[in-house]
Amino acid sequence: MKKILTLSLVAGLLLSLSACGPKSDMEKAWQEAAKIEKNMTKTSFPKVDYSILDYGAKAGDSLFLNHDAINQAILDCSLNGGGRVVIPAGEFHTGPLTLQSNVNLHLQEGAVLKFSPDTSLYLPQVLTRWEGVDCYNYHPFIYAYGETNIALTGKGTIDTQGQKVWWSMCGARHYGWREGKLGQNTGGRKKLLRSAEDKLPMQNRIMTVTDAMRPQTVHFYNCKTILIEGVTILNSP
C-alpha cells in the first residue's frame, strides 16, 4: 500500500511539473505577443466621413452596381487627407473595390456589400499573390496595393456570392464542377506553381480566364498599417 501511495505521489508530481512547464511557456508567449502589439503602428484617420450616397450609390437595386460610386468616394477621401468612407444600412450591389491610403472603409450595422458574380468585372488582372506565388490574376473583391494606413471596419456584411460561380472553379464536384467547366484543377494551379519553380518573370505570370484562379475576398498586397475589424464575410470564393 505504501509503495502504491509513493508511486501515486510521484506520478502526481510529474503531472504537476509537466503542466507548469507549458503554462509558463504560454505565459511568456502571450507576454511577447503583448509587446509586439504594443509596438505596432496603429491605424489613425481624420474624423471626416464620406457617404457613398453622396456619390450616387443606390441601395436595393440588383441591376445597379455601386463600385464606381464607392471607388470615387475612396479616391476623394484619400486625396483630401483621409477619413471614413461610409456604407450605410442597406444592400449595395457592387463590383471590385480598391482601397487607398488613409481610408477606413466602414460598413454600418445593417449594411451589405453584395458583390456581382459577373467574372468580367474583375478584369483586367492586377498584381496579387495566390498560394504564396506572385502573379497577375482576377482583381480581388476588396484590394489595395502598396497603400498605407487602411482599414475595413464596422458591423456590416460582405457577401461575395462565391457559390454562384467561383466555388465550382476549385475543381471539386461537390462544389458544382463538372467536365468541361472551368476549374483550377485543369491546369491553372499547376501552371502558376510551375512558373514560380521556373523563376518566370513576373510580367509573364498572367493568369487567364481559362486558368480559373479564384480571386481573394480581401487582399491588401504590399501594404502597411492595416486594420480589419468587426465585419462579417460570407461566401468567399
Structure characterization notes:
With 237 residues, this protein is of the alpha/beta class. It has one domain: Single-stranded right-handed beta-helix, Pectin lyase-like (Pectate Lyase C-like), CATH 2.160.20. Helix content is 26%, strand content 26%. The protein contains three helices and 14 strands. It has helices at 2-39, 67-79, 188-197, and strands at 49-51, 83-87, 90-94, 97-98, 103-107, 111-115, 126-130, 133-137, 142-145, 148-154, 157-159, 218-221, 224-229, 232-234. The strands form four sheets. The chain has a five-stranded parallel sheet, covered by helices on one side. A four-stranded parallel sheet has the order 3-6-11-14, with no helix packed on it. Strand 1, helix 2 and strand 2 form a beta-alpha-beta unit. The chain is globular, with a radius of gyration of 24 Å. The protein starts with a helix and ends with a strand.
CATH top level label: Mainly Beta
CATH superfamily: Single-stranded right-handed beta-helix, Pectin lyase-like
Low-confidence sequence ranges: 1-10
Amino- and carboxy-terminal Cα gap: 64 Å
What is the β-strand count? Answer: 14
- What's the pLDDT, averaged over the residues? 92
- Rg from C-alpha positions? 24 Å
Strand percentage: 25-35%
The number of domains is: 1
Quaternary status: single chain
Strand order of the largest sheet: 1-2-5-10-13
Biggest β-sheet strands, sense, barrel: 5 strands, parallel
How would you describe the shape?
globular
Write down the secondary-structure element order. HEHEEEEEEEEEEHEEE
CATH-derived architecture = 3 Solenoid
Count helical runs: 3
Class from secondary-structure proportions: alpha/beta
CATH fold-level name: Pectate Lyase C-like
